[in-house]
Fold Tautomerase.
Amino acid sequence: MPIVTIQVTREGNTPGTSAVTPEEKAQLIKGTSELLLKVLNKPLEATFVVIQEVEKENWGWGGLPVDEYRRLRASKND
């Protein structure tokens, strides 16, 4: 019985959203479950997918808070 945990930052991917939408979550659950079926032959009904949204201030990347890291990376690409 596989249990897959997906962690994402709590932020919207399109204007006007502030979190992953229910439709996006459904796609993640379906795609993850189908991948386990295809690769490991794990039945859909035996696969659990948990999506955890983490506030951005609780997410670090490269030793920095995620927003600061993204700003730094963007300034290097300019």
